[in-house]
Amino acid sequence: MSAQFHPKDDLVVSASMDQTVRVWDISGLRKGSQHAGGGPGGHPGGSSGGPGTFETFDSFSTVKYVLEGHDRGVNSAMFHPTLPLIISAADDRVIKIWRMSETKAWEVDSCRGHFNNVSSALFHPKHELIVSCGEDKTVRVWDLAKRTAIQTFRREQDRFWILAAHPNLNLFAAGHDSGLIVFKLERERPAFSVHQDTLYYVRDKYVRSYDFNTGADIGLLSVRKFGSPYVPPRTLSFNPAERAVILTISSDNGLYELASLPQQAQSGDLKDSSVDGKKGNGQSSIFVARNRFAVLDKAKQMIEIRDLSNTVVKTITGPFVTNEIFYGGTASLILSSTTSVVLYDIQQGKTIAELNSPPVKYVVWSADNSLVALMGKHTITIANKNFSSSSLIHETIRIKSGAWDDSGVFIYSTLNHVKYCLPQGDHGVICTLDNPVYLTRIKGKTVHCLDRSARPRTITFDPTEYRFKLALLRNNYEEMLYIIRTSTLMGQSIIAYLQQKGFPEIALHFVQDTNTRFELAIECGNLDVAMKTAKEIDRTECWDRLAQQALKQGNHKIAEKAYQQMKNFDKLSFLYLATGSTDKLSKMQKIADARGDPMSRFHNALYAGDVKGRISVLRDVGLHPLAYLTAKTNGLDELAEEILEAAGLTEADIDDVPSFPSTSFNPPPIVTSTTTINWPSIPAGENFFDRALAEGKFEAGAEPAYVNGDAAAGASSALDAWARDEEAVEENPEEGGWELDPGDEFEVDEPAEEVEEEEEELGAGATPGISEMELWVRNSPLAADHVAAGSFETAMQVLNRQFGVVNFAILKPTFISVYRSSHTYLSPVASLPPLRLHVRRNALESAPSRVLPVSARSLQSVRSELAEGYRFVSGNKLAEAQATFRSVLQALLLVVLSSDDEAKQWRDTVTAAREYLLGVSIELERRRVAEAEPDNIRRVLELAAYFTQCEMQPPHMQIALRSAIGVFSKANNHAHASRFAKRLLELNPDPKIVAQARQRIAAGDRNPRNAVEVSYDEFTPFEICGVTYTPIYKGSPSVHCPYTDASFLPQFKGNLDPLTQLTEIGAPAAGLPASW
Questions:
Q1: Is 0.90 topped by the overall pTM?
Q2: CB distance 569 to 588 below 8 Å
Q3: Helix or strand run (H / E) with residue 247
Q4: 921-to-436, 803, 944, 1047 alpha-carbon distances in Å
Q5: Residues 6+ apart with CB under 8 A from 763
Q6: DSSP string, 732-792
Q7: At what angle do helices 859-874 and 954-970 cross, to 10 degrees?
Q8: Residue 61 C-beta-side C-alpha neighbours within 13 Å
Q9: SS3 of residue 1001 by DSSP
Q10: 176: closest CA among 130, 139, 131?
Q11: β-pair type (20-25, 62-68)
């Protein structure tokens, strides 16, 4: 009935209707040859059968074992892939397991459960399972160790006859009466969870940890006893605070197990998860807080909140029939049903938000928890953390997994692709896959993933396309320009995308095809490119479209050229009339005469006011009545009589013609001739890309300092301009200090006389209320609110107390700008003075103890100004950069903060501005010394080295290091230059820079000497004094700026900080108050 070779040995197992299973030894096939001797096996003579019959080969095989035990015919027998086991299936409805040794074979056990003949049975290639099928229309799965049935799959109409297992994949095939089915026994997606730089996942019955940075892969916990029998866990939830995991499986109607992970890798046997003994029933289980986890019981439709001792502390009934629960933020859950997804608050016990969505299988949060991806079988929903905005993506192929990259783009995998999805819903293909993978982390150009065998893998891909599209959506023009210059991002797809999104001016820089360039140039209004491409194409329809677009923009010069190329003389004549080009109109008359076109001649004569010319045209075409009337009405009586004579008429013949007065129709006078100037109807300004490409703003290898994912990356140029305009002062402040007195422009305290008069007008017993500005001063400890209230004196006191500010003269423009931004004026009646209105931070707040002024400067606008300073540094405009960083530090003193996160951003911005201000000041001093004291080479070298110690972004640090390498190389300090080159290589610069750096390293290895001794020890930590620009090594005494924390030598305590020009060095300061 069946026969199978052993996977390794020279054995064959056969099954027969004689109720036996036989094992045959076929090793004789290796020893003999069918042609040796006179007969088979080398024996003389031969069998009675002719050559080529089956009997010819019988002598090569001998029966090694005969396995008897079945009561009826045996249908199937198979070897185990690795163990000395045999399985057989027979018509006695029994599956038997046999073990064999070198000398014998015996029955181990039987599996009973089929209701009819068992057709086939086989061992699972990888797990301790048996799969069988039979004429009872079922496929059954058995536990090899316990010999018990685990699962049964039934088909109502068809009997099963044969089974086969795929040699490599987790696939089985079963043949039945109507055909065959292909199926899997368990899910291949490994359970995993990612925390920071570590992946926790399950493989081969162990919970393991994988370090993304080092590649260390170690086992932490055994889960071989989880479930009966063991089934690979479906989900894994990790709690970093308690270093614990929750695993769930789908067998036994759903189980979960809570276990703690060891703090470090163990030698020997690993801890088993059953030791903690914290188990329970539930289809889904996840951590929702540091010491709480949620368990979903589908049968009861209950969600239990348990503590780490596995005790129920709260029970929740969902708003609908819940299929899955997922983490929704601290103390929140995402509940999934068949038609919708709900964000549910556990503490309040209510629904926060709801989205209509197909069933969700997996949920992936971004690193900052601002975006979430809800993945179904064929759909992905991208939503923000409150579900207030979302976008839906459909895929025809099953979605397997996904992960967020650092810039807020969701990367996901299907069966055969890795794709990306932008937050607003745009998506595309990144690369193809040979086998499905499960994404765990995206870092730069590397995808970390698990394959189907739960082995960690990495895939390198090119993120250029989605980085470009993301920069496009965020208006990050610098990064877009960088990508355009450095990548090969081409093709019709990206061009079509740019056109679809309304950016034809950007698509124009990708296109080489002349026709496409013309279409894009017309669409974005780039007349220069359109004119150039129209000349190359030279078709009438192109010139016509160019003329129409030029007239829309008021550029009649290009329209004139287009009409000339088209030879459209009528439109040319009318254009010359509109622009007042009388000379050209005269030329058009001559051209019309040469062409012999009467209508064109008449129009040109009409436009030019040439009455005789019009009469001549009318006479030439035989319209003598019209010619006569034209001459008569224009006072040309002699010419009129001549026309009558030519027509053979007299005055008597036209007595019945009514007389017309002289015409007053004359061409309008030309007020302003626009022959040489274009009309200013649509000012088509030069866009960012035209300017940048024309000026060569970025070198090909210099990546912008702010890329997608940075807080300042999405700031547009319009926002930058707004932030700078907000700081603009309408009038020049006085040099030096300034005081507030009643004669100043802004009066804070009204004169006493006016108050008395007001009291008299109010009547006896009536007193005025507290002014709005006084309430602002009372309610806020922030200097910005005091400035907005006009209380400059208290604002200066607050700044001195909090940050040690002593020089307020340079803050006067900022004070005035903030004050003006907090008030507006309304003139209800022209004869009365205007009313001053106070702009509040929260217009809905009415309590006197809580009203506050509007925030004139936001942290985001100041960070945009900081980005402007970065651009100055990149452009080598160091004086402008120095002024910008000082302006940033001045503006940050008057920024209103509302949360701890903003306070952290504020401190980070102060630190960044300080480091850049120090670095730029050092470099300016180096250039001054090099010019004024060319012999002081040692000082020049020291300042170049100190510049590299300032904390700057990688592109600017590359500039500092390359500058230092050049300066030290010229001075023959090859050892120092080599060390700077090694630091440069750590920043991953462009290949050209890498080659130069390696040359410097090689030069330093050949000649490891320094011609000039300098005071610079890079191996000992030090800070740089902001006055002398000399190092202050660790452990040496120093004083600090109370605002920026810049370091200074002790002798400068009490002096004005020369970096910020605001604070007193070493002054005590209270710091920024947490007013929120």
A1: no
A2: yes
A3: strand 244-249
A4: 55, 22, 11, 14
A5: none
A6: PPPSS-----TTSSS-SS--HHHHHHHHHHH-TT------HHHHHHHH---HHHHHHTT-H
A7: 30
A8: 17
A9: helix
A10: 139
A11: antiparallel
Can the peptide bond before residue 229 be classed as cis, meaning omega within 30 degrees of 0? yes
The upper half-sphere exposure of residue 680, i.e. CA atoms within 13 Å in the direction of its Cβ, equals 1
Name residue, tokens 């604070």.
1063
Tokens of residue 142, six digits:
């058995």
Nearest alpha-carbon partner for 309 in 326, 292, 294, 296: 292
Residue 828, both tokens: 């209800």
In DSSP terms, 296 is beta-bridged to 284, 303
Half-sphere exposure of 1068 (CA within 13 A, CB side): 0
Token pair in block for residue 596: 């012999």
Q: Which pair of structure tokens corresponds to residue 761?
A: 């007008």
Q: For residue 959, count other CB atoms closer than 10 A to its CB.
A: 19
List pLDDT tens digits, range 674-707. 777 666 555 444 555 555 544 444 444 445 543 4
Burial class (CB in 10 A: 0-12, 13-18, 19+), 860: middle
Compute the residue count for the chain: 1076
909 phi and psi angles, rounded to 5 deg: -70, -40
Specify whether the CB–CB gap between 385 and 397 falls below 8 A: no
Give burial (CB, 10 Å; 0-12/13-18/19+) of 782.
buried
Cα(87)–Cα(100) distance, rounded to whole angstroms?
11
For residue 590, give every residue at least 6 positions away whose Cβ sits within 8 Å of its Cβ, in sequence order, or none: none
> How far apart are the C-alpha atoms of 4 and 26, rounded to whole Å?
12
Lowest mean pLDDT among 274-278, 767-771, 1070-1074: 767-771
Contact 905, 859 (CB under 8 A): yes
Residue pair 795/812 in contact (Cβ under 8 Å)? The answer is no
Query: How many CB atoms within 10 Å of residue 850?
Result: 12
pLDDT band at 42 (very low <50, low <70, confident <90, very high): very low
Q: Is the pLDDT of residue 871 over 70?
A: yes
Q: How far apart, in whole angstroms, are the C-alpha atoms of residue 556 and residue 562? A: 10
- Rounded-to-integer distance, Cα 179 and Cα 201, Å: 38
CA dihedral 991, 994, 996, 998 (to 10 degrees): -140
Question: d(Cα 95, Cα 101) in Å, to the nearest integer?
Answer: 20
Q: b/e for 127-143, b at 16 or more Cβ within 10 A?
A: bebbbbbbbbbbbbbbb
Exposure string for 654-687, b = 16+ CB within 10 A, e = fewer: eeeeeeeeeeeeeeeeeeeebeeeeeeeeeeeeb
Q: How confident is the model at residue 116 (pLDDT cuts 50, 70, 90)?
A: very high
